[in-house]
């Protein structure tokens, strides 16, 4: 296969991701393998992590460079975490440049600091810069710390600078695309939506394992990062209501995932008197995860209703759907778009209503089956990664082939009533414009 640009060799992509090791970051791994299969040469810089401790590794033709990481425990310690990560990203980017070379840096946030690496190599060597917009960091900062202070304004500025230096931006949904266009001032023709579709080869339906139920009749499953904005406290409050107020003792709740809030939430479960009814599995292997989710009668997403979660697409929702599991979640814009009729929707941040929706589904096997079948069909027909892979490749065609592919998308955007005027001007003007005026 001959790619656009220099026909003598394939284009080389350097992916940088800071918050999860590869291949455990499923979106990044799907992107890396898709690009590799399409003929690109892919290198990845990422942190070490549980099950991914090798500093240098090649998996499926993808060259992985891992670095140490320091996990922040407070807002000010983030400076240390991100400073250490940036140091290693710069160092390893030089190593990749000399060992394998790269034509573009594909930066996956958080944080919105990788543009410093991408901007350096863009200005010095003319490398392309792709921003893969995983999280909206201003809203994430506010969700974590509940304030709009000086640091919040710094986070907003860093987001704008990231967009300003980007040749193209890849959004995980249309809410993020709107942010790139409106807040990031990017041209619509340079913003591509590539959703984090689940990989059905990984998410296999297998028989349930009775041991997950701990001898109880029903199981409710959750998978995800155990962080402050995930709203697991609402789930635990719902469990308390079910067990203590409604005197239901036939349901086991299994929470799979690791994160900074895990110890606090374990302590909260003890405080609420529900520790025997909640299994905290921690970070688990794919096999253990599939065992838990396939055993669950209902799967839940307790993400708090806030601006960050409202605009974000949660991978766990599509994973539940891929396994034909009915879902209970709070009513969030992107959560509803993803699940549609595969889910029941509780009132915003209302743990009692959340509990009621769980019990509604547990009490109706036919409805559980109906919601599960709808969700799996939606994933297979519309949301699975094979539907998204061509969109990623189209974005890269636009990156390397100039305006041709971008103009195709631009015409589609205009047809939907959006402006598609291409932004002109040199890099310096683009970098300065976010600082010249504020919305």
UniProtKB/TrEMBL annotation:
Domain called Glycosyltransferase subfamily 4-like N-terminal: residue spans: 26-202
InterPro entries: Glyco_trans_4-like_N
Domain of life: Bacteria
Naturally occurring in which organism (per UniProt): Bradyrhizobium centrolobii
Keyword Protein biosynthesis carried by entry: no
Alphabetical UniProt keywords: Transferase
Keyword Transferase annotated: yes
Name listed for the protein in its UniProt record: Glycosyltransferase WbuB
Matches recorded under PANTHER family: BLR6297 PROTEIN, GLYCOSYLTRANSFERASE
A GO molecular-function annotation: glycosyltransferase activity
